[in-house]
Design a protein that fits this description.
270 residues; alpha/beta; 3-stranded antiparallel sheet; 10 helices
Length: 270
Amino acid sequence: MEKDLKFKVVTDSTADIPEEISKALGIEVIPYYIHLEGKSFKESIDITPEEVWSYLEKTEDLSKLPKTACPGVGEYYETFKKILEEGKKVLSIHMTSWGSGAFQSANTAKQIIKEEEPEAEIEVLDSKSVSLGTGFMVIEAAKASLKGWDLKKTIEHINEVRSNLFHAFTNDTLKFLAAGGRIGKAKYLLAEMLKINPIISVDHDGVLVALDKAIGRVKAYQKIVSHMNNFFKDKKFLNIGFLHASAEEEVKKLKEEISKVFKIKNINSK
């Protein structure tokens, strides 16, 4: 089946696509790097998400938080060349360029190859999304390839998928945002004292924005559902992706709140 594909889809590990899905659809996933205590690990290859969460829960020195780095130009170059040598085209989709250099690295790799092989067909897309928002677009692109769609039709479809994406994230601590300089210490301390749960979304330019806030997680989940209802309006059957950082029980609570309003057509969870 794969040998008949007109193009192959490339992404990176920030798309958070479950491994069984990426393998089944023939998606090439290039890992990000996680730098931790002087060592460099390939995400989900040399280190698991569970190991990272465990480290974060234990560490009290915020100067020793893990740092991430996107794959380099050479890694995208090698992946693209391999696909082209198989006689296929390339569609590379990456998280918002506002928050990562992956799109730029992949685009640079494309330009280098185009100078070497002007006829090479490579498309690099900025998903203007994060996590499974990007993942949904990647999955849809891979399915389109399996159906025999060409790149033009697939990209039109992916843009339509992007216009119908809604992101919402919440967490019970701003400690890591404060450590990374995303918010000031005063805001962090006030939020911790009042048990404020921020609700973050992604706008159509791919920029993370403050959507709302709530006191306590359950209220945050209810507000997320309210914003979903405003966004999707009359649509009641949805494909939804749930991701969590060592908070499986909280995901169950969020699903319960969403199920009161929407019929969940399909779930991707990680």
